[in-house]
Automatic annotation (TrEMBL):
All copies of domain NodB homology, residue ranges: 70-279
Protein name: Polysaccharide deacetylase family protein
Taxonomy, superkingdom: Bacteria
């Protein structure tokens, strides 16, 4: 094909501009095509019908709340006495279970104490157990030297308190005699404890005690301090039965406004803690159902 321009003549300025424009348009078209082919594709969302089990759990189901594992048994000794009504009212208001280890002599000591017994028996969330008839008159060494007399004392309390269960706690001694635990804190009390067990009594001690000053009746620890101690005992497994803790308190300590407030704080703190369940002592492992 014959050239548009003569071989010896340079192209005109218009023709050169036109040619340059065409070249630029061609380069731009190629670049656009390249970019459209290399653009990252939009991720495709999985159809719900083919979602894996892991996808469903992680995306649509909230994490499962940790189930409660540890059990706390609130037990109160020496009633019925002047603090028993307050303790009972708090347990009733907060709707939590509690076990009262009662003294037979106190149950018939006055009209008020007899009425307290009726109130204690009326609640299904309350468990009543034997804490002896005389409480050894607080002369513990002498009391445990005579095993037969100890047995008679507990039998008398059982009759006065009208108890059907054989669960008991020895006064002034942290003694255990159940299927899973056998322990005596003071060896001189062993013969008396063995005698009680021989005649069907199941003796329950405690893992920790909420102490109070004998003269002032004031608690030696606040509710927060006691809660921290409970957490620590569980963490270090310093309990008789793993994941089970028996707390001993005394009715008579809860008469002053400050002590009453601390008991309320403790109860509410334990209720709100998802690590703990509050239980009656009859549900303690190793305790026969009798």
């Amino acid at each position: 094909m014959k050239s548009i321009f003569p071989v010896d003549e340079p192209p005109s300025r218009l023709s050169f501009t036109y040619s340059t424009l065409m070249v630029l348009l061609f380069i731009a078209a190629c670049q656009y095509k390249k970019e459209t082919h290399t653009t990252t594709a939009t991720p495709v969302i999985k159809d719900s019908a083919i979602l894996s089990k892991a996808d469903i759990i992680s995306c649509s189901i909230p994490p499962k709340k940790t189930s409660k594992r540890k059990k706390i048994y609130l037990t109160f000794d020496d009633g019925p006495n002047k603090g028993t009504r307050t303790v009972l009212d708090i347990m009733k208001e907060e709707q939590i279970p509690a076990t009262f280890f009662l003294v037979g002599e106190h149950a018939i000591g006055s009209t008020e104490q007899k009425e307290l017994m009726d109130s204690l028996r009326s609640l299904q969330t309350i468990e009543l157990c034997n804490h002896s008839y005389s409480h050894a008159h607080n002369k513990f060494d002498k009391f445990y030297m005579q095993p037969d007399s100890v047995l008679a004392d507990f039998d008398k309390a059982r009759a006065v308190l009208q108890l059907t269960c054989m669960t008991a706690r020895t006064p002034g001694r942290n003694i255990w005699r159940i299927d899973s635990i056998n322990g005596t804190d003071i060896k001189a009390s062993k013969a008396a404890a063995d005698t009680l067990q021989k005649y069907g009594y199941q003796l329950v001690g405690w893992d920790m005690e909420w102490h109070f000053e004998a003269k002032t009746m004031q608690l030696t620890k606040t509710a927060n301090e006691l809660k921290m101690q409970i957490d620590s005992l569980f963490m270090r497994n310093k309990v008789k039965q793993e994941n089970h803790l028996v707390l001993l308190a005394h009715d008579q300590a809860y008469r002053s406004p400050s002590n009453i407030e601390e008991l309320q704080k403790l109860v509410r703190s334990l209720k709100q803690d998802d690590n703990y369940d509050l239980e009656l002592i009859k549900n303690y492992p190793g305790l026969s159902k009798n």
